[in-house]
Design a protein that fits this description.
The chain is mostly helical. The protein has three helices and no strands. It folds into two domains: about 40 residues; about 50 residues, no CATH class.
């Protein structure tokens, strides 16, 4: 009976360690993404991509399928051109 108790405690400890490592890696990845976004992105780009994502989501709901790469590119570059035209 005692060896089963140690086995259960070992399993619980293993799961806890695995969850901790997962959380630390996820936090590290989130910090890296945030830092990269600060370095390589602008407010106009963020706004244009947010609008493009919303448009793609609505198109996928309307069509009932995933969009092709060409359809996605048309939407993304359309919003990027629109944001460029607004600036000028």
């Amino acid at each position: 009976m005692e060896k089963y108790m140690f086995m259960v405690l070992g399993i619980i400890l293993g799961i806890a360690i695995a969850l901790y490592v997962y959380a630390v890696k996820k936090e590290h990845y989130a910090k890296k993404v945030k830092k990269d976004q600060d370095y390589f992105s602008t407010k106009r780009l963020d706004v244009a991509l947010e609008k493009a994502v919303q448009e793609m989501q609505s198109q996928m709901k309307y069509l009932g399928r995933k969009l092709t790469e060409d359809e996605k590119n048309v939407i993304i570059f359309g919003y990027l051109k629109e944001s460029e035209n607004i600036k000028q």
